[in-house]
Amino acid sequence: GTPNQHPARPPRVLSIAGTDPSGGAGIQADLKSIAALGGYGMAAITSLVAQNTHGIRSIHTPPVSFLREQLDAVSDDIHIDAVKIGMLGTVEVTAVVGDWLAAARPPIVVLDPVMVATSGDRLLAPGAEDALRTLLPESTLVTPNLPELAVLAGEERAESWANALNQARRVSAHYGVTVLAKGGHLVGDHCPDALVDERGFPGGDTLIEVSGPRLTTRNTHGTGCSLSSALATAQARNNDWALSLRECTAWLRDSITHADDLEVGSGNGPINH
Ligand code: PLP
């Protein structure tokens, strides 16, 4: 490309996640999202997932020693500006990622606490939620959807935005992590997103909220994966959560708005990264 297309050194962003060979979610979505937000994308694979826009057929998890090999191969050589963590799948995988984080100490860690896909298929082994919780204090930002937020808070699923914000506040205070509360799973026209940090953002605010009307496409596969990797990339560049949230939610809205143009699959199709 021309020099204009490469104005500054892109942030180096590593996704640690599962795959989606149909290109809508997981590692594949992460790499597209990182590139769209101007980052240099890298990927260490936790699990290989045979899936498409209809759901998951099977999951193959390589030995966890091989995941550690992948992670060390990257961090032994490359300075990592931000990490996005997606599907972990098992207690063993989660422990390896926790050990690697403690050794590599990347400056930004965005944890998408992936539990169940929109299709209803489990992406986290039953009983692995406690292992996932141990990564929260090691993370900069956690990005649960409403059902995942309820699990992290140890409560019933929030039925209102006020209720979701309170759960996010409790998770933030308990684990010392910034929480992205996402309104997309609420019913109604209004579905905001908000960053919540009970320790405060610069300026003393504990809440950074962005609102928008509901979009009506049924093609939303990979939305959560994409937003978390976009936020890791934007924050590595901006060091400003309010700016990063505005930038990423605007980009995500555009990607959802143009999802139907893709004509990929006959199920819950991908967003248009
Ligand atoms: N596949 C992988 C590997 C994922 O990590 C996720 C979600 O995080 C999904 C599929 C599910 O995507 P969605 O629920 O948006 O369809």
From TrEMBL:
Catalyzes the phosphorylation of hydroxymethylpyrimidine phosphate (HMP-P) to HMP-PP, and of HMP to HMP-P. It comes from the Bacteria. Pfam families: Phos_pyr_kin. Pathway: Cofactor biosynthesis; thiamine diphosphate biosynthesis; 4-amino-2-methyl-5-diphosphomethylpyrimidine from 5-amino-1-(5-phospho-D-ribosyl)imidazole: step 3/3. It catalyses: 4-amino-2-methyl-5-(phosphooxymethyl)pyrimidine + ATP = 4-amino-2-methyl-5-(diphosphooxymethyl)pyrimidine + ADP; 4-amino-5-hydroxymethyl-2-methylpyrimidine + ATP = 4-amino-2-methyl-5-(phosphooxymethyl)pyrimidine + ADP + H(+). Keywords: ATP-binding, Kinase, Nucleotide-binding, Thiamine biosynthesis, Transferase. GO terms for molecular function: ATP binding; hydroxymethylpyrimidine kinase activity; phosphomethylpyrimidine kinase activity. The keyword Kinase applies. This is Hydroxymethylpyrimidine kinase/phosphomethylpyrimidine kinase. One of its GO terms (cellular component) is cytosol. The keyword Glycoprotein does not apply.
